[in-house]
Fold this sequence. Notes:
By secondary structure, this protein is α+β, with helices and mostly antiparallel strands. Among the domains are: 12-86, Nuclear Transport Factor 2, Chain: A (Roll), CATH 3.10.450; 118-159, no CATH class; 173-222, no CATH class. Helices cover 17% and strands 20% of the residues. The chain has helices at 12-15, 18-29, 99-102, 146-152, 160-172, 180-183, and strands spanning 34-44, 47-54, 62-69, 78-86, 123-125, 156-158, 195-197, 206-209, 220-222. The strands form 3 sheets. Strands 1-2-3-4 form a 4-stranded antiparallel sheet, covered by helices on one side. Strands 7-8-9 form a 3-stranded antiparallel sheet. It has a two-stranded antiparallel sheet with strand order 5-6. The radius of gyration is 39 Å and the shape is elongated. Mean pLDDT is 82; it is low at 130-135. This is DUF3027 family protein. It comes from Mumia flava.
Amino acid sequence: MPPSTRAVKLDSVAADAVEQARAALIDEVGTERVGDYLGARAEGDRVVTHTFAAQQGGYRGWHWSVTVVRAARQKRVTIDEIVLLPGDQAIVAPAWTPYADRVQPGDLSPGDLLPPEEADVRLAPAWFTGDAAVDDEIDPTSVRPIADEVGLGRIEVLSLEGRDLAAQRWHDGSQGPDNALTRQAPGSCRTCGFMVWLTPPLGNRFGVCANGMANDDGRVVAFDHGCGAHSQTKVKRPAASAAPPPVHDTVTVDDIDPLV
Protein backbone atom coordinates (compact mmCIF):
# COMPACT_ATOMS: atom_id res chain seq x y z
CA MET A 1 0.00 0.00 0.00
CA PRO A 2 1.46 3.44 -0.92
CA PRO A 3 2.49 5.63 2.08
CA SER A 4 0.01 8.34 1.01
CA THR A 5 -3.01 6.06 1.43
CA ARG A 6 -2.19 3.91 4.46
CA ALA A 7 -3.06 5.00 7.99
CA VAL A 8 -0.16 6.63 9.86
CA LYS A 9 0.43 5.35 13.38
CA LEU A 10 1.13 7.88 16.13
CA ASP A 11 4.71 7.33 17.27
CA SER A 12 4.68 6.92 21.06
CA VAL A 13 8.10 8.49 21.67
CA ALA A 14 7.34 11.54 19.54
CA ALA A 15 3.84 11.81 21.07
CA ASP A 16 5.28 11.82 24.60
CA ALA A 17 7.66 14.69 23.79
CA VAL A 18 5.15 17.32 24.90
CA GLU A 19 7.47 19.10 27.32
CA GLN A 20 10.33 19.10 24.84
CA ALA A 21 8.04 20.69 22.26
CA ARG A 22 6.81 23.26 24.79
CA ALA A 23 10.35 24.13 25.84
CA ALA A 24 11.38 24.67 22.24
CA LEU A 25 8.33 26.85 21.64
CA ILE A 26 8.94 28.97 24.75
CA ASP A 27 12.56 29.38 23.73
CA GLU A 28 11.37 30.66 20.37
CA VAL A 29 8.46 32.98 21.29
CA GLY A 30 8.52 33.44 25.08
CA THR A 31 6.40 32.08 27.92
CA GLU A 32 3.68 34.74 27.77
CA ARG A 33 2.65 33.76 24.23
CA VAL A 34 2.20 30.03 24.90
CA GLY A 35 -1.14 28.74 26.21
CA ASP A 36 -2.60 25.34 27.07
CA TYR A 37 -1.62 22.13 25.33
CA LEU A 38 -4.25 21.17 22.73
CA GLY A 39 -3.13 17.75 21.51
CA ALA A 40 -1.01 15.87 18.99
CA ARG A 41 -1.47 14.36 15.56
CA ALA A 42 0.65 12.09 13.37
CA GLU A 43 2.07 13.70 10.25
CA GLY A 44 4.00 10.64 9.03
CA ASP A 45 6.21 7.81 10.25
CA ARG A 46 7.79 8.99 13.53
CA VAL A 47 6.62 12.58 12.80
CA VAL A 48 4.20 14.19 15.28
CA THR A 49 2.84 17.73 15.55
CA HIS A 50 2.01 19.12 19.01
CA THR A 51 -0.36 22.09 19.22
CA PHE A 52 -0.55 24.77 21.92
CA ALA A 53 -3.04 27.62 22.31
CA ALA A 54 -1.64 30.96 21.17
CA GLN A 55 -1.70 33.93 23.53
CA GLN A 56 -0.41 36.18 20.76
CA GLY A 57 -2.14 39.56 20.69
CA GLY A 58 -4.44 39.95 17.69
CA TYR A 59 -4.41 36.21 16.90
CA ARG A 60 -7.55 34.95 18.60
CA GLY A 61 -8.37 31.40 17.49
CA TRP A 62 -4.82 30.68 16.29
CA HIS A 63 -2.49 28.02 17.72
CA TRP A 64 1.18 27.16 17.83
CA SER A 65 2.21 24.05 15.93
CA VAL A 66 5.44 22.32 16.95
CA THR A 67 6.48 19.37 14.78
CA VAL A 68 8.96 16.84 16.14
CA VAL A 69 10.58 13.90 14.37
CA ARG A 70 12.30 10.76 15.66
CA ALA A 71 14.97 9.13 13.53
CA ALA A 72 14.86 5.36 13.08
CA ARG A 73 16.11 3.39 16.12
CA GLN A 74 16.52 6.60 18.16
CA LYS A 75 14.95 7.30 21.56
CA ARG A 76 14.98 11.08 21.33
CA VAL A 77 13.15 13.50 19.06
CA THR A 78 14.36 16.51 17.12
CA ILE A 79 12.42 19.74 16.72
CA ASP A 80 11.46 20.05 13.06
CA GLU A 81 9.50 23.33 12.80
CA ILE A 82 7.49 25.85 14.83
CA VAL A 83 4.68 27.77 13.14
CA LEU A 84 1.63 29.83 14.10
CA LEU A 85 -1.51 28.53 12.33
CA PRO A 86 -5.17 29.66 12.20
CA GLY A 87 -7.92 27.51 13.69
CA ASP A 88 -11.57 27.19 12.71
CA GLN A 89 -12.52 30.35 14.66
CA ALA A 90 -9.49 32.38 13.63
CA ILE A 91 -9.77 35.75 11.90
CA VAL A 92 -7.81 35.47 8.67
CA ALA A 93 -7.45 37.54 5.54
CA PRO A 94 -9.81 36.65 2.67
CA ALA A 95 -8.59 34.25 0.01
CA TRP A 96 -6.32 35.84 -2.54
CA THR A 97 -8.10 36.92 -5.69
CA PRO A 98 -5.98 37.55 -8.80
CA TYR A 99 -5.85 41.15 -9.97
CA ALA A 100 -7.61 40.36 -13.24
CA ASP A 101 -10.54 38.86 -11.32
CA ARG A 102 -10.81 41.79 -8.89
CA VAL A 103 -11.12 44.52 -11.51
CA GLN A 104 -14.73 45.48 -12.16
CA PRO A 105 -16.24 47.68 -14.88
CA GLY A 106 -15.60 51.32 -14.01
CA ASP A 107 -12.49 50.63 -11.88
CA LEU A 108 -9.94 51.90 -14.41
CA SER A 109 -8.31 55.24 -13.67
CA PRO A 110 -6.21 57.39 -16.02
CA GLY A 111 -2.97 55.54 -16.76
CA ASP A 112 -4.26 52.09 -15.72
CA LEU A 113 -3.69 49.23 -18.16
CA LEU A 114 -5.98 46.21 -18.52
CA PRO A 115 -4.81 43.87 -21.30
CA PRO A 116 -7.21 41.18 -22.60
CA GLU A 117 -6.75 37.59 -21.48
CA GLU A 118 -4.69 35.16 -23.48
CA ALA A 119 -6.83 33.71 -26.29
CA ASP A 120 -9.71 35.97 -25.28
CA VAL A 121 -12.86 34.47 -26.78
CA ARG A 122 -14.32 37.95 -27.25
CA LEU A 123 -11.75 38.74 -29.95
CA ALA A 124 -10.98 37.16 -33.30
CA PRO A 125 -8.37 37.90 -35.99
CA ALA A 126 -9.48 40.58 -38.40
CA TRP A 127 -9.53 38.07 -41.26
CA PHE A 128 -11.65 35.56 -39.31
CA THR A 129 -15.30 35.87 -38.33
CA GLY A 130 -14.86 33.61 -35.30
CA ASP A 131 -17.93 31.55 -36.13
CA ALA A 132 -17.69 27.75 -36.30
CA ALA A 133 -21.38 27.27 -37.10
CA VAL A 134 -22.67 25.84 -40.32
CA ASP A 135 -23.34 28.17 -43.22
CA ASP A 136 -27.08 28.55 -42.67
CA GLU A 137 -26.48 29.69 -39.06
CA ILE A 138 -24.03 32.47 -39.90
CA ASP A 139 -25.42 35.97 -39.83
CA PRO A 140 -24.20 37.38 -43.18
CA THR A 141 -24.31 40.92 -41.83
CA SER A 142 -21.62 40.01 -39.26
CA VAL A 143 -19.05 39.02 -41.93
CA ARG A 144 -17.01 42.05 -42.94
CA PRO A 145 -14.73 41.97 -45.98
CA ILE A 146 -11.06 41.44 -45.31
CA ALA A 147 -10.22 44.56 -47.27
CA ASP A 148 -12.24 46.71 -44.88
CA GLU A 149 -10.39 45.33 -41.87
CA VAL A 150 -7.03 45.88 -43.56
CA GLY A 151 -8.05 49.46 -44.25
CA LEU A 152 -8.93 50.00 -40.58
CA GLY A 153 -5.56 48.61 -39.56
CA ARG A 154 -6.98 46.47 -36.76
CA ILE A 155 -5.33 43.16 -35.93
CA GLU A 156 -8.33 41.83 -33.99
CA VAL A 157 -12.04 42.49 -34.12
CA LEU A 158 -15.02 41.53 -32.00
CA SER A 159 -15.79 37.83 -32.35
CA LEU A 160 -19.34 36.55 -32.65
CA GLU A 161 -19.11 35.26 -29.09
CA GLY A 162 -17.90 38.65 -27.90
CA ARG A 163 -20.77 40.31 -29.75
CA ASP A 164 -23.30 37.99 -28.13
CA LEU A 165 -21.82 38.57 -24.66
CA ALA A 166 -22.06 42.33 -25.14
CA ALA A 167 -25.64 42.12 -26.37
CA GLN A 168 -26.69 39.98 -23.40
CA ARG A 169 -24.91 42.31 -20.96
CA TRP A 170 -26.57 45.41 -22.40
CA HIS A 171 -29.99 43.78 -22.48
CA ASP A 172 -29.71 42.55 -18.87
CA GLY A 173 -28.38 45.88 -17.57
CA SER A 174 -30.03 49.21 -16.89
CA GLN A 175 -30.19 49.92 -20.65
CA GLY A 176 -32.51 46.96 -21.15
CA PRO A 177 -36.26 46.58 -20.63
CA ASP A 178 -36.34 45.15 -17.11
CA ASN A 179 -36.31 48.28 -14.94
CA ALA A 180 -38.73 50.77 -13.40
CA LEU A 181 -37.74 53.53 -15.83
CA THR A 182 -38.88 51.47 -18.79
CA ARG A 183 -42.07 50.25 -17.14
CA GLN A 184 -43.18 53.84 -16.53
CA ALA A 185 -42.07 55.16 -19.94
CA PRO A 186 -44.62 56.51 -22.43
CA GLY A 187 -42.87 54.72 -25.31
CA SER A 188 -39.91 52.52 -26.25
CA CYS A 189 -36.56 53.62 -27.62
CA ARG A 190 -37.37 51.94 -30.94
CA THR A 191 -39.87 54.71 -31.71
CA CYS A 192 -37.93 57.59 -30.15
CA GLY A 193 -36.56 60.30 -32.43
CA PHE A 194 -33.50 60.76 -30.20
CA MET A 195 -32.20 57.23 -30.81
CA VAL A 196 -29.20 56.87 -33.14
CA TRP A 197 -29.25 53.58 -35.03
CA LEU A 198 -26.28 51.21 -35.05
CA THR A 199 -25.19 48.99 -37.91
CA PRO A 200 -26.33 45.35 -37.84
CA PRO A 201 -26.17 42.88 -36.28
CA LEU A 202 -26.12 44.79 -32.96
CA GLY A 203 -28.14 47.47 -34.71
CA ASN A 204 -30.99 45.00 -35.00
CA ARG A 205 -31.58 45.24 -31.25
CA PHE A 206 -29.74 48.34 -29.95
CA GLY A 207 -29.18 52.02 -30.61
CA VAL A 208 -27.51 54.98 -28.90
CA CYS A 209 -29.48 57.59 -26.96
CA ALA A 210 -28.79 61.16 -28.14
CA ASN A 211 -31.14 63.03 -25.79
CA GLY A 212 -29.00 65.26 -23.58
CA MET A 213 -31.76 65.38 -20.96
CA ALA A 214 -32.18 61.59 -20.73
CA ASN A 215 -30.48 59.35 -18.17
CA ASP A 216 -28.93 57.22 -20.92
CA ASP A 217 -27.58 60.02 -23.11
CA GLY A 218 -24.59 58.67 -25.05
CA ARG A 219 -25.23 55.07 -23.96
CA VAL A 220 -26.28 51.98 -25.86
CA VAL A 221 -29.96 51.20 -25.21
CA ALA A 222 -32.14 48.28 -26.23
CA PHE A 223 -35.04 48.89 -28.59
CA ASP A 224 -37.46 47.87 -25.83
CA HIS A 225 -35.87 50.19 -23.27
CA GLY A 226 -37.61 53.46 -22.50
CA CYS A 227 -37.72 56.56 -20.34
CA GLY A 228 -39.84 59.65 -19.75
CA ALA A 229 -37.77 61.72 -22.21
CA HIS A 230 -39.23 59.96 -25.28
CA SER A 231 -39.52 62.29 -28.26
CA GLN A 232 -43.29 61.73 -28.44
CA THR A 233 -43.92 62.47 -24.78
CA LYS A 234 -46.90 64.79 -24.31
CA VAL A 235 -47.94 66.46 -21.08
CA LYS A 236 -51.66 67.08 -20.62
CA ARG A 237 -52.37 70.63 -19.56
CA PRO A 238 -55.60 71.47 -17.70
CA ALA A 239 -58.23 73.38 -19.69
CA ALA A 240 -58.24 77.14 -19.04
CA SER A 241 -61.17 78.31 -16.92
CA ALA A 242 -62.89 81.76 -17.00
CA ALA A 243 -61.41 84.20 -14.55
CA PRO A 244 -63.76 85.62 -11.90
CA PRO A 245 -64.76 89.33 -12.18
CA PRO A 246 -62.22 91.71 -10.63
CA VAL A 247 -62.89 93.13 -7.20
CA HIS A 248 -61.78 96.59 -8.34
CA ASP A 249 -62.62 97.52 -11.94
CA THR A 250 -59.67 99.59 -13.23
CA VAL A 251 -60.47 99.16 -16.92
CA THR A 252 -63.92 100.66 -17.57
CA VAL A 253 -64.86 104.30 -17.02
CA ASP A 254 -67.58 105.17 -14.57
CA ASP A 255 -70.37 107.56 -15.77
CA ILE A 256 -70.64 110.45 -13.31
CA ASP A 257 -73.47 113.05 -13.36
CA PRO A 258 -71.66 116.44 -13.28
CA LEU A 259 -74.67 118.15 -11.58
CA VAL A 260 -74.52 115.89 -8.57
